[in-house]
Amino acid sequence: MSARPAWLRSGRVVFGLSVVVLISLVALFAPWLAPHDPNEQTLLSTFLPPFWAKGGEAAFPLGTDSLGRCTLSRLIYGARIAMTVAIVASFGAMIIGAVLAHIAGYFGGWIDWLIGRTVDVWMSFPPVILSLILMVGLGTGLRNVILAIVLVDWTRFCRVLRSEVLVVTRRDYVAAARLIGFSHWRTITREILPATTPLLITLVSLEMGIAVIVEAILSFVGMSVGATTPAWGQMIADARQYIYDSPWNLVFPILMIFITVLGFNVLGDGLRRTLDVRLTETQRA
Amino acid sequence: MTLLEAQKLTVSASLDGERVPVLHDLSFSLKAGRVLGLVGESGAGKSMVGRAIAQLLPPGFAATGGALTFGGVDLVTMEPEARRALLGREIAFIPQEPLSALNPVLTIGRQFDEHLARIGVASRERRAAMLAAFDAVHLPRPAELLARYPHQLSGGMCQRVLIAMAFASKPKLVIADEPTTALDVTIQARVVQLIAEMQARDDTAVLFITHDLRLAAQVCHDILVLYAGRAAEYGPARNVFGAPGHPYTRCLQLANPAMRERRGLYALPERMPGLRAYNAMAGCAFAPRCPLAITQCTQAPPPLAEVGPSHVAACIRAARTAEIAPAAEPAVETPAAAPVILEASALTKRFASGGLFRRAEFTAVSNVSFALHENEFVGIVGESGSGKSTLARLIVGLETPSEGRIEIAGRDIDGSAEADDHRRRHVQMVFQDPQSALNPRRRVASIVTQPLEAAGHATWEERLARAGLLLREIGLPGEAATRFPAQLSGGQRQRVNIARALCAVPRILIADEIVSGLDVSVQAQLLKLLAALRRERGFSMLFISHDLSVVRYLCDRVLVMLRGEVVESGLTEQVFAAPAHEYTRTLLAAVPPDDSEISARPRESGDPVLGPGPPLSRG
Amino acid sequence: MTSILPLIARRVLVSVVILFIVSALLFCILRLLPVDPAAMSLPPNATLAEIEAKRHEMGLDQPLFRQYLIWATQVLHGDFGTSIHFRRGVAGLIGSTLPATIELALLAMIVAGTLGIAGGLYLFHVRGSAMEPIADAGSIVLLSLPEFLWGLFFILLFGVALELLPFTGRLTAGFQRPVVTGFLLLDTLLAGRPDMFLNALKHMILPSLALGIAFAPTIMRVLRSSLLDVYQEDYIHQARLRGFSERHILLRHALKNAILPTLSLMGVQFGFLFGGTLLIEVIYSYPGLGNLMVDAVRNADLPIIQAVGLTYCVVVLTINTVVDAAYVILNPKLRIA
Question: Nearest by CB to C238, which of B86, B95, B107?
C-alpha cells in the first residue's frame, strides 16, 4: 500500500487544497497580516497605484481606493468574510439538503413527493433573485447572509443527492440489511450514507465556491454585511465607480474571487475523480 | 474453401508494463457453410477472437503473433479502411444483449435502413428488402415493426431483428457472440434454430461463441475449447462432446447437472487463472486443477496432439480422460412426513402502474398456494415475467401480498411487528447479483456477521471468530475475512452471500437465481456446497431458477410458473420425466440435450446434432 | 405531436400552483422587513397619525392572510400595485423593462448554447490526446468566473483598455428609440433604421457575451461527460461492428443520445442565466428588469419586489416547461410507453 491515500495523490486535490488552506490562513491571521486597518481612511493618499507602478508607495503595497483605504488590507479582511460565509453556509446547506435527500430517497412514497415538490417550488426561482429577496426580508449582516445562502442552496444538495440515494437504496445490500433486522436509522447510516459521502464531499467543495460568489454578488449590490465591513464584492462596486481613476482596484478583488473559486472548483473536481471511483477500487491488497 | 483461418494467432495485452498473451498460438479453420463453436468460460478469451476479427481490440491489446486470414487476406495487416469495408458486408456480428445493441432513440426502420444504405441497397428497394428480411426471421407484422423503437420489443424479437440485419448482406462469415445468453430458454431454442436456418440458406460460415458446451454440441459442426487463452481441444462436435480428449472438456461436461437422471456433479476446485497469472505459468495452465496432473504437466505447456480423426487435444494424458468421473454423492433423502414449515395460500400480488391519470394494474403473482416441508428443497422454475422473483419477495417480506396468507412455522404472518420478527428469525434470502448484494465498503467479516450487528451485542472479536467459522463452512480461506468484496471473484462473493444468510441460522433459505451468471465450474462448486450444507445443517430452501438442470440436481420438488400462476408442481423426477402441462413440455424440450442423450443418438457424418426444437411459431 | 399536449397542459397547471405558493412565500418573506413601507412613502416629517392613516390606506393593518388575498385578486386583474418610490403602476414599469431583459437573455442563451455544444464536442474530440488535460483545466478555469466577473473583465478589456465596444445603456445618446413592440432590436428593424439596429446590437455584444460565456463551460462539461457515457454503451460498439465510420457514429448515433441529459441541464442553466441578467444589467447600466429590481431593493419598494420576483419565477417556469417538452419530443422512451 502506498503511503498517501489515493485522493491525496491527485494533482487537482493538492492544488485546490493548497489554495483553500492558504486563503483560510490569510483570513484567520488577518489582523497580523494586514499592514493597515482596512477601514482607516487616508484622504491625502487616495487612488494610489500598486507599489510597482509609478506613484506607488511601499506602505500601501497594492494601492488605495477612493477613500485612501489600503487595498491589500481590505482584500485580506475581505477573505475573512468570504471564507466564513463559504464554510458555514455550505455546511449548513449540506446538512439540510442531505438530511432531506436521504429521507426522501430512502422512504419514497408521499414523503419523497412532498420533498420533491418543495424543492421544485424553491428552484423555480433564480438563486440570485431569491437571495436578494431574502436579504431584503431578513436585513443585512453576516449572519443573515449565511442564512440566506443556506435557505437558497439546500435545494441544490437535495436534488443531486436524492438521485444518488435512490440508486443506492435500490441495491440488494440495502434490502439485505433490512431483512437481517437493521432499523431504518441503522440502514441509512451504515449502508447508505457511506455510499453517498463521496458525492457529499464533492458537492460541499463546489458549494463553497458558489457561496463565495453569492456573497460577492450580495455585497456588490450592497445587501451583504454592511458598509463598515470590507468585502470583495463591495470593493468591486466601489472600484467600478472610479474605473478610470484606478482600474487596479477593480482588478485585485476580481482576481481574489477568481482564485478562491478556482481553488474550490479544482478541489471539488479532483475529489470527484478520486473518491467517486467506487471506494472499493482504492482498497487493493 | 477455407474462409476464416487462424494460424498460431497471439493477441497480447500490456498489463502493468508486461505483455500478457490473452490468446496464445490459436489455430483453427472455418469453411463456408460450417459452424464452428468457440467454447470457454469467462476470461478464457473467446470474445477476444471476435474482437480480433473485427480488429476492434480494446486499448492496450494488439495482435502480436501469427496470422488471422479471411478469404486469404490477413486481417491484422489489412488497411483499416479496407477492413472497415468488410464489416457489415462480408463479416457480420450477432450480439449478446439484443436490447442494448440498438440505438434507443432511433426507430428499428431507421437503423435497418441506415445499414442497408451502407451495404449498397438502392433507396427505393430498401423497404421491400427490410420487410422480406423480417419475414425470413418469422417476425410478425413486419411493417409495424419498422416504426417501433427498441424498448418496445422483447429480447427475443430484438435478437431476431439483429439476425435479420446481420444476414441482410448475405455475409460470408457471421460471428455470433453468445447470442442466446440473455434470453429465456424457450426463446434461446428458437433463436438457435433460426441461425441454423439462415446459415443453411446462404451457406454462411458461422463462428458460434458460447460458454455452454451442450449448446455448442447441439448447434455446431466443430468445437474449439478454450482455456486460459489457449486451445485445449479442437475437433468435430460429437467427438469433442462424446469422447473428450482434454480433461478440462470432460470436467466441463460433468459440471453440468444432467436432466435425465440425477448424477453427481464434478466440481473443479478454484477457478481458471486470471490474466495476471498467465506469464507465471510454466506448464499446462490447467494443471493446478486437473485430476490427472503429474509432474511432467507443470514443466512445459503440452502441444496439441491427435486423439482421434481431425481431433486434437493439448494434454499428455488424454488417453485417461474417460476415467474422470464425479465422486459418488449420498442420495438426497426425500423427507417422508416432515412437518410443514412454510405454507402459502392463494398468494396474489398486483402492482399499480401509470401516473396520476392513467392507472393500469399488473398481476405479478396470481393465486399461488404451496407448502414447504422441513429439510426440503423446492425449486421454482419459470422464464422472465413468470412472477417467481416476486413470489420470493412476498415470502421473505420485501413485498406485501395483495391477497392471500403466509404461514411460517405455524405462525400467520399478518403484518404485525412480532410476526415480522418471527419471519426474520426463520427466513433469510440470498440475492441474485453478488455485485449489488454485498456492500462494497464493508469487509467480508463484517458482511457475514451482519445479523450479529443487528442483534446488537457482539464485539468485533466475537464477530471475527464467528466469521471464521462461517467462512470455513462455505469453503473460503480464513484470510478472506479482512478483504473487500471487490477483491473477490463472482463465485466467492456468492459464497459470502450465502454465509451471511446462514449466520442467522434460518430454517428457510430463499435463493433467487443465485447461480445464474456464474461459470459452469463455479456453479458446480456452489451447488455441491448447497447440497453439503443441507446435509450438515438441515434447512429448507426455495430455489428459484430458470435453469431446469440445476433444479433437477438440487431440488426434491418443483413448481413451474407461467405468468404469475403455478401451472404444474410435483416431485422433480416425475415432473421432468412426464410433464403434464404443455408449458412444462415446451420448457423441457428447449433444454439442450446432455451428454447421455448425445451418445445415444444415431450419428451421421459431419452434421451438427440439431435435435427437433420446439415448433417455430410467429410471435 | 398530440402526445405532448397533455404533458404541457399538466405542466402549466402545476406551474400556476407553484406561482401561487411562490407569491405567498414572497409575500411573507417581505413582510419580515424591519422597514415600514407606509413611513417610507411619506415625507420624513410626517406625524404618527399621518403614518397610521397611510398604513390603513395601504391596507397594512389587516391580517397577513387578507393582505395576501387582496393582492392576489388585484394581480389576477392585472393590477400589480403602485410603486412606492416611482409612484407609477408596477405593471407599466415591468412592461417597459421586461422586453429588454428578454432580448439580453435570448442573445446570451444563443451564445451559451453554441459555445457550450461546440466546446463540449471539442473536449470530447481531444480525449486521450495531449490536449485533453489542458482543455480540461481550461474549462475548469472558465467555470470559476461567474457572470458578473466576466462582465467586469470585458468592461476593463474591451471598454476601457481597448475602447472597442460601448458598455453603458442600450443606445448611444442622441438616438430616439422607436416604440412599436417594446423589443428594441425588433423595433429598430420595423422602423427601418438599420443604423440604430446596429448601434443597439453593439451595445448588447459585451453584456450578452459575458452572460453567455459564464454559462457555457457547464454545458460543455456535461455534453462531454454525456458523450463519454454514451460511448460506453453497447449500441455504439455494435455500430462499429457494422462498419460505420467514427464520424457517422458520433453524428448519427452518439449525439442524439448525449443531447438528452445535456438539454436537461441547459434548461436548469438557462434558469440561472435569466437570474444572472440582474447583475449584468447593473454592471452595464442596462435598463432592464434587473436594474428595476436592484433599485426597488435599495428603496425597499415592496410592490415592485413582489411583482418582479414573480415575473422572474414565471420566466423560469416557462423555460422549464419548454425544455421538458423538448426532452419528451426527443426521447421516444417517454413518448411511447
Answer: B95
